[in-house]
Amino acid sequence: MAALSELLGDLVADVDGLFLFTPSHSHYERFAEADVPTVVIAPENTLDAETFVELPLQFQNVKDRIRFGVEGAMEQSIVEAGDTILCNVGIFDGDPDSVVKVRVEENMRSGIYDLFANSRADPGVIRDVFEVAIELGKKGQKGEPVGALFIVGDAGKVMNKSRPLSYNPFEKSHVYVGDPIVNVMLKEFSRLDGAFVISDSGKIVSAYRYLEPSAEGVDIPKGLGARHMAGGAITRDTNATAIVLSESDGLVRAFKGGKIILEIDPEAY
Amino acid sequence: MGGSASTLLAEPSAYSTHSLFPLQSIGGFVDRLIRAAGIRFFGVLVILLLGLIFAYVAGTLVHRLLVRVGVPESIEGTAFERAARDFETSTVEIISWLTRYFVLGTSILAALSFAGVNYADQFWTIVFADTLPQLFVAILVLIVGVVIGDKVELLIAERFRAVKLPQVNIVPPLAKYTVFFLAALVALSQVGVTTLPLLVLLGSYMLGLIVLSAVAFRDLLRSGAAGTYLLFTQPYGIGDEIIVGQTRGVVQEFDMFVTHIESEDEEYILPNAHVFEEGVGRVR
User: Which Gene3D superfamilies match (chain A) (predicted)?
Assistant: First the structure.
């Protein structure tokens, strides 16, 4: 009859690092001086941790959250392929409640971290657009499910590879995504067809844009509609990131470089 | 009431006459009172009474006058008015009460000096008679200043509503605090506080700021001024291909100070002053 702590002992044996996901202060203090390197993964470095990976979205899906953390750590050369790490992460709301052992592999690089950290647009802008898309997916437009297409970053090129469907409601305005009022405007205008074009710094350049990229070589799953195809294709032609809310299945997907990078369910947030 | 008071003072022998002629007894009481306290006391009473009446009338007049000229409508929505409303009063009410207190205070002073109270001459007249009107004016100036400051902020904010530029938001509060500052200065000088050091301080601040900005922020200011024009009129937008001097590229972004343009492999960040100097060529 083995003791219960042995279960955890097996898990903890031979790890190369400890990843703390959004730890509380006292929690961090207790493990900061552990015998393995500690990495804090949180939306903000409020704890002044030495090694820190910024988490732009509180991914509800734990797998995504861990993948993001590991990718960020790989990007910052904190860990490398072949390392084994222990993730202390909260699956249910609140404090970290579980321990997951992960082996870092080269193929874990799915581009989620890259999507936020290395896009043309500011990470904060991408996060804000994600939040608008997620909220829109949750509530829809007046209760009806709605689709939306946001092209973030490299706006100059995107504008040259698209044409207006009608007058641009954001013409000569200086509004930035992330402003609560602007988010309401975005939701209102999402009933229009076409794409929103958002610049690197988050300025809303245009709504009502018809994208005209060349669609060859775009690698997106079959079964997605024209909106996803257009969004995916423009990211191959330009350095933009596309964030698409599907009208039919209500999922938010992100494309970069013509590839689907991230898929999240707004209902889970 | 007069009857019962007089019964207390009256001698027991006159008791029966009092109950028969109460009016006469009151007259007798006042008579005796005047004789006891002297004409002075009576004068003080009259002055106080007149002051009370006059204070009430003056306050009410001020109130009506302010309402008639439309003050409550024009200051609707200012912070001071809203704060006053929270205390279940209003700016006009406060001013009219202030007037009442002022008139009452004056009449009390007059009564005191009439009564010839010695320490009143020594102390109160010196402290009060000199400062009371000034204090009154100072408080009035403060209230009016706060109200006007709020109003100016609202007006300017309304005027700028059409300008869709977040940076403009700094102007209305600036105007408000300028008015506040002026009102505070006037009020302080009213009560006799020396405001010269404050003025000197402000002046030196402004001078320092102007010198500093003229020297250090010259380019930023120039770009900012040009950028304001560019943001308002938007001669080119994101996505347009433009030529500025030797540089040619697609506009990726522009703000108050700089314009980002990107050609095949290079991104240029041009100060708006430069864009303005060189002029912009738009490629069709």
Answer: DNA integrity scanning protein, DisA, N-terminal domain
- In sequence order, the 6+-apart residues with CB closer than 8 A to the CB of B184 are B142, B145
Rounded to the nearest angstrom, the minimum Cα separation between B88 and chain A is: 33
Find the CB nearest A199 among B164, B166, B238.
B238
What's the topology of domain A4-114?
Answer: Pyruvate Kinase; Chain: A, domain 1 (3.40.1380)
| pTM for the model | 0.63
CA torsion through residues B91, B96, B99, B105, sign: negative
**pLDDT tens column, A221-254:** 888 888 898 999 999 888 899 999 998 888 899 9
* B250–A158 CB contact, under 8 Å: no
Backbone angles phi, psi at B76, to 5 degrees: -60, 130
pLDDT in tens, B71-115: 888 877 777 888 888 888 888 888 888 888 888 888 887 887 777
Asked if A269 and A250 count as a contact pair (C-beta separation under 8 A), the reply is no
List beta partners, residue A210.
Answer: A163
- Domain of residue B243, residue span: 236-283
Q: Which of B117, B143, B169 is the last residue of a domain?
A: B143
- Whether B32 is in a domain gets the answer no
Instruction: Tally the residues of chain A.
Output: 269
Residues B188-221 have pLDDT tens digits of 888 777 778 888 888 898 898 889 888 888 888 8
For the CA atoms of A95, A97, A99, A104, the dihedral, rounded to the nearest 10 degrees, stands at: -50
ipTM > 0.85 (yes/no): no
- CATH architecture of structural domain A119-268: 3-Layer(aba) Sandwich (3.40)
Flag if B252 and A200 touch (Cβ within 8 Å).
yes
Residue identified by tokens 């209500």 is: A250
**Helix (H) or strand (E) segment spanning residue A85:** strand A84-89
Dist. CA A82–CA B248, nearest whole Å: 48
Distance, in angstroms, between B101 CA and closest chain A CA? 48
A174–B166 CB contact, under 8 Å? yes
